[in-house]
Amino acid sequence: MPIKSSHIKSIEHRVTEQDRWRRQGHEGGVLWFTGLPGSGKSTLAFELERVLFEKGKQVFVMDGDNLRHGLNSDLGFSPEDRAENIRRVGEVAALYADAGMIAVTAFISPYRADRRGARQAAGGHFHEVYLSASLEICEGRDPKGHYKLARQGEIPDFTGVSAPYETPEEPELVIDTGAMSVDESLQVLGEYVEKVFGLKDE
């Protein structure tokens, strides 16, 4: 999004990215969970947060439902509002990553263009994690009863029913949460985090 004022100047930090990473004991970055409603995004995000926190990692989850109670409470579910929802989250997640933390986001984020914007905000520290459970499996779970309401026409613009979901083209990680258990998925995620967020030798 273009900056509206011409009188804005970026101010450089006096603490380097590498210094923050050394203090935290790991690199910072964004783990961006995307997938259909019911694919397990929130479940895995909060379980991963617990596991990483117990291992001493600096980690925080941003969940779609939670942020719509505060930061994004003024947004609905039109394509324009969805885009702004993801833009805001992408920028906040990038700030967490800049602070040396692991930001885990759990958002349907159905549009590729919006996810590209979030990737751009985080630069090279963005990791798209696609939870690839099929529509049939997700609708069969229907943990919040939203699919049923959407099929009845009571929830408009519902992803997978009356609104599209654009599958990631080149995600860093794909987990078939329709075939894998929560524990199996966490194992894969934990191994990935150790690989990409561990401090590299300089």
Describe the structure.
By secondary structure, the protein is of the alpha/beta class. Helices cover 43% and strands 12% of the residues. The chain has one domain (17-197): Rossmann fold (3-Layer(aba) Sandwich), CATH 3.40.50.300. It contains eight helices and five strands, in the order H-E-H-E-H-H-E-H-E-H-H-E-H. A five-stranded parallel β-sheet has the order 2-3-1-4-5, sandwiched between helices. The longest helix has 20 residues, at 79-98. The radius of gyration is 17 Å and the shape is globular. The termini are far apart.
Give a summary of the structure in a few sentences.
With 202 residues, the protein is an alpha/beta fold.
Would you report the number of β strands?
5
The arrangement of helices and strands along the chain is HEHEHHEHEHHEH
**Could you list the spans in which at least 5 consecutive residues all have pLDDT below 50?**
none
Largest sheet: 5 strands, parallel
- Average residue pLDDT: 92
Could you state the CATH homologous superfamily? Answer: P-loop containing nucleotide triphosphate hydrolases
Give me the CATH architecture, please. 3-Layer(aba) Sandwich
What is the name of the CATH topology?
Rossmann fold
Distance between the termini: 35 Å
Query: How many structural domains can be distinguished in the coordinates?
Result: 1
Number of helices: 8
Strand content: 5-15%
Report Rg.
17 Å
**Secondary structure category:** alpha/beta
**Neighbour order of strands in the largest sheet:** 2-3-1-4-5
Helix content: 40-55%
Specify the overall morphology: globular
